[in-house]
C-alpha cells in the first residue's frame, strides 16, 4: 500500500494525541492519596466519558478498556490498512482464546466458567470465539486458528498440560503477528514487529532463568522472527544477565538491557526489564514521529495508548493496595 495515503491519517492521529494523558496529568494521578482521588483527576481527561458509568471504584479496568475500545474504533474508521490496528489487537484475541479454553476445562471439572475475564478489545467477538471453541467448529475463525485449537484440545485430553497449551498459543500469536506485519509491505512495521518478538524472547529468557531452565528446555518458549537468532538467545541462558547487553550489543533490543536494574533479585530484575522493553518499543517508533506520511505512526499512537492504559492500571492497583508512590513510579512506562 502507498505510504503517501497516510498524510490525512497522521493529521488525525496528531489531533488525537492532544487528548492523551500526558506526563503532568499522570503525575497528578500518581500523587493522589487514594483511588477516589486518582479517579477524580482522570475524570478531567478523555476518560470522563466512561467514568460516569462506573458502578463502583474497582471498575476502573472497565473504564480503561472502554477508552481503548473507543480509540480502536475511531482509528478503524480512517486508517487505510487495518492490519496495522490488528497488530495491536491480536494479543487480546489470544487472551480470549486462553480464557475460553480454561473455562471449558474448568467446566469439565465441575467449576464455574470465567467469562468475566474476556475482553472486547480483540478482533473476534468473544461470543463467536466461545461458540467456535465449544462446538469445535473453527471454520469461521481467522488467523488459521483451527489447527492450533484442535491441537490444544487434544493436548488437554491426553495430558491436561496447560503450560504446553499456552506455549502453543503464544507461538501461533507471534507467528501470526509476523505474517501480518510482513504482509503490509511497510519495512518499519515489520522491523517493529521483529523487535517486539525480540522483547518477548528476552522477557521469556529471564523468566526461564528464574525457574532454572537449561538452554535445551528453553528453546520451545522462544519465538522465531526476531532480529536475534534463537541460537544466540539460547546461549544467553548460561551467561549472567548483566552481560546480556554486551553479548547482544549488535541488536537494537540491547538498549533495553542497558536500562535493566542491576540486582541479584531476579523478580525485581524481571520487572525492570519488562518496563525497559516496553519503553524501548515506544522509542523505536519515535523515529517516525515527524514523518507526516509514515504508516508506522499508527503503531506509535496505539502503543502509546496501550502504555497509557498500562500505567493507569499500575497506579490504580497500587492505590487500591496502598503501595508507596515511589515504588509505583518506578514501574511506569515512559511514553511522552
Keywords for this entry:
single chain, 336 residues, mainly alpha, V-type ATP synthase subunit C fold, 17 helices, 65% helix
Question: What does it look like?
Answer:
With 336 residues, the chain is mainly α. The protein has a domain at 82-184: Up-down Bundle (V-type ATP synthase subunit C fold), CATH 1.20.1690. It has helices at 6-17, 23-31, 35-42, 48-51, 60-76, 83-108, 126-135, 145-159, 162-184, 187-210, 215-218, 230-236, 244-247, 254-258, 266-285, 296-320, 325-329. Helix 6 (83-108) packs antiparallel against helix 9 (162-184), helix 9 (162-184) runs antiparallel to helix 10 and helix 10 (187-210) runs antiparallel to helix 15 (266-285). It is globular. The mean pLDDT is 94.
- Report the radius of gyration as a whole number of Å: 20 Å
Largest sheet: none
- Strand-and-helix sequence, N→C? HHHHHHHHHHHHHHHHH
Helix content: 55-70%
Overall geometry comes to globular
End-to-end separation in angstroms reads: 29 Å
In round numbers, the mean pLDDT is 94
> Beta-strand percentage?
under 5%
What CATH calls the topology of the domain at 82-184 is V-type ATP synthase subunit C fold
Question: CATH first level of the domain at 82-184: which class?
Answer: Mainly Alpha
- CATH architecture descriptor text of the domain at 82-184: Up-down Bundle
- List the total number of helices: 17
By secondary-structure content and strand pairing, the structural class works out as mainly alpha
**Which consecutive residue ranges, at least 5 long each, have pLDDT under 50?**
none
How many β-strands, per DSSP?
Answer: 0
Amino acid at each position: 500500500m502507498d505510504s503517501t495515503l497516510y498524510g490525512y491519517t497522521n493529521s488525525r492521529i496528531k489531533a488525537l494525541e492532544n487528548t492523551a494523558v500526558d506526563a503532568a496529568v499522570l503525575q497528578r494521578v500518581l500523587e493522589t492519596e487514594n483511588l477516589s482521588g486518582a479517579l477524580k483527576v482522570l475524570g478531567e481527561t478523555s476518560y470522563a466519558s466512561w467514568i460516569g458509568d462506573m458502578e463502583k471504584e474497582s471498575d476502573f479496568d472497565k473504564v480503561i478498556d472502554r477508552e481503548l475500545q473507543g480509540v480502536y474504533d475511531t482509528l478503524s474508521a480512517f486508517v487505510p490498512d487495518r492490519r496495522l490496528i490488528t497488530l495491536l489487537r491480536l494479543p487480546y484475541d489470544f487472551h480470549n482464546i486462553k480464557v475460553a479454553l480454561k473455562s471449558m476445562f474448568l467446566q469439565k471439572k465441575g467449576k464455574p466458567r470465567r467469562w468475566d475475564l474476556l475482553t472486547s478489545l480483540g478482533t473476534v467477538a468473544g461470543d463467536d470465539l466461545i461458540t467456535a471453541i465449544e462446538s469445535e467448529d473453527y471454520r469461521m475463525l481467522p488467523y488459521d486458528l483451527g489447527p492450533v485449537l484442535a491441537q490444544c484440545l487434544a493436548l488437554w485430553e491426553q495430558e491436561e498440560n496447560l503450560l504446553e497449551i499456552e506455549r502453543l498459543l503464544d507461538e501461533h500469536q507471534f507467528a501470526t503477528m509476523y505474517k501480518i506485519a510482513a504482509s503490509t509491505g511497510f519495512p518499519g512495521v515489520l522491523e517493529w514487529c521483529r523487535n517486539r518478538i525480540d522483547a518477548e524472547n528476552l522477557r521469556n529468557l529471564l523468566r526461564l532463568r528464574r525457574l532454572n531452565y537449561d538452554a535445551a528446555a528453553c528453546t520451545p518458549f522462544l519465538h522465531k522472527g526476531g532480529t536475534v537468532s534463537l541460537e544466540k538467545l539460547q546461549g544467553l541462558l548460561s551467561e549472567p544477565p548483566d552481560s546480556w547487553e554486551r553479548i547482544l550489543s549488535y541488536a537494537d533490543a540491547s538498549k533495553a538491557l542497558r536500562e535493566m536494574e542491576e540486582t541479584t533479585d531476579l523478580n525485581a530484575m524481571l520487572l525492570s526489564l519488562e518496563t525497559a522493553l516496553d519503553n524501548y518499543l515506544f522509542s523505536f517508533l519515535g523515529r517516525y514521529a515527524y514523518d507526516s506520511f509514515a504508516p508506522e505512526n499508527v503503531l506509535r499512537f496505539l502503543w502509546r495508548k496501550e502504555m497509557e492504559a498500562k500505567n493507569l492500571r499500575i497506579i490504580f492497583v497500587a492505590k487500591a493496595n496502598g503501595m508507596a508512590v515511589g515504588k509505583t513510579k518506578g514501574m511506569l512506562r515512559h511514553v511522552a
